[in-house]
Amino acid sequence: MASFHAFLFVSFMWSISALVLHQHNSCGGTFGVGGFLRSIELVPCDKEPCAVYPGHTYNATISFTSQISSLLVTETFDVKLGDFPVWEVFPIVPPNPCVRGLQCPILAGTTYTYNASVTTPTDATETLNVTGRLALRGDRGDKILCLEFPLILNDPARDPNTILG
């Protein structure tokens, strides 16, 4: 019985720390014309913009409908600090979404759901407003999906999971 209560508690905590992101935009131009985003859920996240902390891993469940067919898919995630025109790559592990639940080959008109995990770099030392960008490309470089969304990269000292002594 105790394990059942523990399961309910963990399920409840998981549900309040997951958020379907609504504040997102296409990357502009024609970059997102090959697909349509259905939803992106970020865990752990409890409000928008999502607060992320250095050295933590964040998981996303992404659902989209492709408008092009492709044998393989390449995925990238990067962030832009404030208004600086430089994007920094955050590695996705593993980098190929076809081995993380995305059913490949991709067929035009089909809806897909898959998972991605990103670990934030540990070198952040202050709170910064950043823009995250998730992009999927087909095997010929075709743009399947691209979206940008606001994040807050927090100072590690504000991390609620850090025990200060």
What does this structure look like?
The protein has about 160 residues and is mostly beta strands. It has a single domain (about 20-160), classed as Immunoglobulin-like. Helices cover about 10% and strands about 40% of the residues. Strands 2, 4, 6, 7, 9 and 10 form a six-stranded mixed β-sheet that branches. Strands 1-3-5-8 form a four-stranded antiparallel β-sheet, covered by helices on one side. Strand 9 (about 130-140) and strand 10 form a beta hairpin.
The largest sheet is: 6 strands, mixed
- Tally of helical segments: 1
Distance between the termini: 35 Å
* Low-pLDDT stretches: 1-16
Oligomer: single chain
Q: How many strands appear in the DSSP assignment?
A: 10
How many domains, as an integer? 1
CATH class reads Mainly Beta
What is the residue-mean pLDDT, rounded to a whole number? 77
Considering DSSP H and I runs of 4 or more, what fraction of the residues is helical? under 10%
The fraction of residues assigned to DSSP E strands is 35-45%
CATH topology: Immunoglobulin-like
Helix-strand pattern, N to C? HEEEEEEEEEE
Under the CATH scheme, the architecture is Sandwich
Q: Whole-number radius of gyration?
A: 17 Å
Structural class: mainly beta
User: Tell me, what's the shape?
Assistant: elongated
